[in-house]
Amino acid sequence: MIKRYLILIICSGFMAIACNRQLDLAPENTLIEKEVFKTADGTDQALAEAYITLVRAATGGISYTLGDFSTDNLNHSTYFNIFANGETTADHDEVVNLWTNYFKAVNVANNVMANIPLYATYPLEKQNVFIAEARFIRAYAYLDLLKFFGDGALTGKMDGRGLPIQLTPFKGYNTGDVIARSNNGAVYAQIIKDLEESIPALGDQQSNELKTRSRATKGSAYALLARTYLYMGRYEDAVTAANKVLEKSPLLYDLSPTLLALFPANPDGTTQSLTKEHVFAFPVSYIVSSSTTFNNNLGNPYFFKRSFWITNTLLNTFEPNDKRRTELIFKGDQIYNTQQLNDLTTFKFNNSNGRDNVPVIRLAEVILTAAEGIARTQGVTQTAVDMVNKVRNRAVTGAVPYTLNTFANATALTDTILKQRKLELAFEGFNRYDLIRTGRPLQNPDIPAGRKVLPVPQVEIDISKGLILQNTGY
């Protein structure tokens, strides 16, 4: 299954059988749905397309980097000013592509879910696994869309304008198949429903280690559920979901013993193994064939520092001897970009051609999610303190562990956990959304609340004849 995920990405549609085109509209000269979904192998290929479409959405354009370059983690070129300042327009290509690419992932997942019951002739148990994986993909896409476009979705505004909830294959605007935006609460409810319904069919592991780290499993579904609850402010539920992942540690999930094992040097763009810390990752270093090399869209803008370079504010936030500073930050390009030769960049995506794997859910995130949830609901507890120590102690050489007496109250502990999230997950696309959900300022502290989400593409509003409404800040 993973082999097709990684190798059949060799044409513009990423599949030699033209599955993407066929899944959308079933044009002539492509395999019809009945042939594709009749067998487990054919369905596997269709599901591979769903995963790759999600990779494209989640790493393309500004989708992965917005979480950092709009905060005090990164300096950036002037191109990104409008996004950092909340001044982007509803017809900007980045905004249109972000919306379109994620809904492509939703639609391919919907096609998989719709066609398996119609045409599959292989065992029902296997059908249910494929459907569960497609549900996970749809849930992931919708959670990302919500953090980008959900008006107040990260600040508890459950009646704010969310997203169109598309649960069946989209047949086209001319068919009347246009759906108004549901509110944020309804979208969150659908994400939770998809994840909860996927979990019973998913296994703890797939058939090999690579598949386990790069395809949906019970662990990745619970981890995404924990993130969802955290963004909703449902902290007890976030702890419950996170603990479902943590109870599989250290047998199935564990922190990597060193940071460089997690983010290895990769100057030649060779295949890099995923580790037990990866609950879910995009295995970009594996995605290569004789005709295509996949790019994570991160290596070039980070390595050459023409787009992003690290702020002194972030550098000064690290403790002395923090390996996240000494090992995972470097100078990058020392030849081509003379204006930024002395500036620093992240080592997490150190291959200049974008051949590094992309972490999506790491165990460190899950640990810190659980710790934050405990701190917010139970106060200063030994369990929460132990969790934050586990993440910090790996990074900080000679760190004196925190104790219960370190923290005067739950607020102090929560602030420390949020600081560890900032440092641990830097450049992995989290900081913006943590700042918004906790009421802290972005890089531009004067952005009004309504501009902390992106505008809905104007084309969607126009083609729906106003059924789809714009966000209130635009």
UniProtKB/TrEMBL annotation:
It comes from the Bacteria. Residues 348-442 form the RagB/SusD domain. TPR repeats lie at residues 219-252. Residues 1-18 form the signal peptide. Keywords: Cell outer membrane, Membrane, Signal, TPR repeat. Pfam families: SusD-like_3, SusD_RagB. GO terms for cellular component: cell outer membrane. Residues 67-230 form the SusD-like N-terminal domain. It is found in: Cell outer membrane. This is SusD family protein. It comes from Chitinophaga niabensis. The lineage of its organism: Bacteria, Pseudomonadati, Bacteroidota, Chitinophagia, Chitinophagales.
